[in-house]
Hints:
- The chain has helices spanning 48-65, 72-88, 90-101, 105-124, 162-175, 190-201, and strands at residues 16-18, 21-23, 29-32, 39-43, 133-135, 143-145, 152-156, 179-183, 209-210.
- The protein is of the alpha/beta class and 211 residues long.
- The protein has a single domain, classed as Aldehyde Dehydrogenase, Chain A, domain 1 (3-Layer(aba) Sandwich), CATH 3.40.605.
- The strands form four sheets. A three-stranded parallel beta sheet has the order 7-8-9, with helices on both faces. It has a two-stranded antiparallel sheet with strand order 1-2. A two-stranded antiparallel sheet has the order 3-4.
- The radius of gyration is 19 Å and the shape is globular.
- The two termini are 29 Å apart.
- The mean pLDDT is 91.
Amino acid sequence: MSLTFDPDTIPLPVGHFIGGELIPVEGGIEMRRPSDGKSYTDCPVASPDLVERAVDSAKATLKASNWGGVRPRERTRVLQAWADLIEADAATLARIEALSSTRPVGQLVAGDIAITAEQIRFFAEFADKEGSELAPTDDASLGMIMSEPYGVVGAITPWNFPISMAGWKLGPALAAGNAVVLKPSEMTPFSAIYLAQLAVRAGLPAGLINV
Length: 211
């Protein structure tokens, strides 16, 4: 893969990702490329109403898909397919990430993106291995400690290592049967959105991840 690219030709998923769709918003925070200081797009800012819309989407999708109630191995299968797509589309993810963070493309492909795919696979395998416990009681009682999904999880990721940090938050939450509303850094937001788009392509119900 070439280590060079024209930053002006990289299509960016600018907007909010809600219900499986990219929602464009006018204006936002001006973004400048660290490599040359050029203003290249705006980072959209979510209004309180838009945040509520994202949460409502997560709640509705969680209920309609019964994601927390499907067979754990099915959750594993979908998350592993997502990891495969992350690896297959590493070049696109690397260029999107490099544009706003100025991380070297080759370093991203070999490091952050490969690590993100392995994070997703790692947590996917926990879906059917983290279970409930039978508590010791007398012979007239039955005590159980149940492991159940929280529901909708709110996650925040920083500007540095944005894609791997997103994978670290999304992987365990989804494997456990939750939905997620993710707020990435306004300095490096676009790789998280593309990551969520890949998740829908892999078979994750649209609306389980909202960014």
